[in-house]
Every structure is written in structure tokens, then in C-alpha cells.
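Budget justification, computational time. The allocation requested in the original proposal was used primarily to generate C-alpha cells for proteins on the priority list. As evidence of use, we reproduce two of the resulting records. The first is shown immediately below.
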Amino acid sequence: MLSEGETVAVFGQFTYTSVHAKCTFTSPFSIKATVKNGLITYFQFMEDTYASAASFRVAGEWTIQQDADPAKNFKVSENS
């Protein structure tokens, strides 16, 4: 945890388990917050949302579009 003035930054990692799919993964996280008069007035939380979403997939294949050009799409399956 770091702070300067009213700005606070926190860095770490945690382990999630999706309840129904029983998939566990560890994700780094970071938090940026602004604290004024002892109250949080701004809060930004960042995590690996791709890994989080993938933990709920139990079957099938995803097609990921990363660019306006569909030729750059790629597929993600259970074994990827």
C-alpha cells in the first residue's frame, strides 16, 4: 500500500473460486483510491477480468475479437 496526499494505491493478488463451476484462479489486483476527510471519494479496482470470466465457462468455445479486422479473431477452447 502506498499513499501520497489524498491518493492511495494498493497492489496484491487473491484467489477466486467460482462457486458452481468450481474453477479456481489467482489474479493480481490493484486499487487506486482518493480519501478526503477519512472517507473514500473515488475508488478504482483493476483485476484480470479475462481470467475471472473464463472461470465461469464450463464448456464450449469463445471467439475473441481483439481488432476491427475479423481476420485477427482467435478462438479459445477448454484446452487453450
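The second record produced under the same allocation is shown here.
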Amino acid sequence: MKIDLTNKIALITGATGQLGRVMARTLASCGADIAIHYRSNEALAQNLQEEITAMGRRAAIVNGDITKLESIQAMQASIKEQLGSVDIVVANAVVQYQWTSVLEQSAADYASQFESCVMQSVYLAKTFVPDMIERKWGRMVGINTECSMQNFPTQSAYVAGKRGMDGVYRVLAKEIGEHQITVNQVAPGWTISDQDRANNAEHSESYESTVPLKRRGTDQEIANVVAFLASDLASFITGAYVPVSGGNVMPSI
């Protein structure tokens, strides 16, 4: 048994980010062709494209603002021209901002999280799901966060955006399930990335002490779950919020 994404085309938003680039490489290693979305770092996107083509897969670069419907529609047109119709959408991009208390957080920060979590999910669905319905196969995978269940101080804008995203994904799963399209979320814990490795910052005793597995997860462990949910091995899983946090958060039943 193996994860086989041969002949599938996957779009990863925020593919040049710390987690996104590992997802792109992982889905490509499973056989998928990759649409690499970036917002500002074209050089990283080009490097990633070279890596994926060296693996024997096709890769296209698309630039766009994931908070704007017309921008996502333009991305779709470009991907179709370069690769074909998208089978797998991984909503990974999110606007970055400085976390602070509810009383001090600006209204603009709440708006940015709503736009990049909720509206990105809506716009991606509106743009890419119709083709999936036509083919009777598709995968929507949203990258959520363990913070959605923690609700710690200073997390309010991020949590509000991601919990809104959760609502969209759960409803969408029920609306399009009859077309054999699955809609799921992966919720990473505080994950070790290349940036942490470069800064020798892989460990945090205070955080790790709260995690049942007593360590932080890695970017590859997140990407592995994304690949699984994108595959036919997960064909009967939909509407799920899957924490990849070493047990740090556990959804109840």
C-alpha cells in the first residue's frame, strides 16, 4: 500500500512558505504535478519549481492574492493552461501579523484573518470545485491549527479566522460529498521547519512538556497527513479536523 497521486494536479497556496514547500515536494514525490502559488517570493517559487521538475513531475508557478476572487480565478486559468484542471487544493496560505490581546489587536488584523482563512476557502471552492464535480473526484484540504482548540491569550484574530474556516469546510463537506469530493482539515501543532533548523530552535521545553509525545512535530509529518488526505487511501474521510500535534489537542466525541 502506498500513497499514489499519479496523474493528479495539486494546487498549494502559500507553497513557498515553511510548511507549503514541504507539502509541494511530498505531493510531487507521490506522483502529483504541482501548481506552486506564491504571493511575494518569486525566487523561492522558481527554486521549488526546479526541485519538482528534477523529480520528474510538472510544476507551474502562479502568483496571486488569495483574498481576492478575481485573483484566484486568474490563477485557475493559468494552471489550466500550463498543467490542466486541478484535482487537489491545499489551502495553506495565511496573512501574517503581530499577535496581541483582544483589547489591543487592530480591527485590520481580524479582517486579514477573515479574508485569508474564511474567504480564501470560499473563493477556492467557488473556483475549483465545479471542475471536481464534473469529474466526480476532488480533494479540498485546509490547513487549520491546534490554536483553534486552545484559545490562548493573544491568539484571538488567528483563532477567529481559523474557526470560521472550520465552519466553511464542514458545511462544504456536506454540500459536495455526493460528488465524491472530500473536504478535510489538517491542524498542525507548533511545527519544526527549516527556519527553526537554521536557527537551532527546534526545541522548547515549556511547549514539549505539554505534548503527550514530548516533542514538536516536523514539517514532513504535516505534509504526510496532507498527502494521505489527498489520496484514495482517505476516500471515505470527509468533514474531518485532524490535529497533527502529538496529542497536544484532542477533539472530543
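A brief technical remark on that second record: DSSP finds nine helices and seven strands in the chain.
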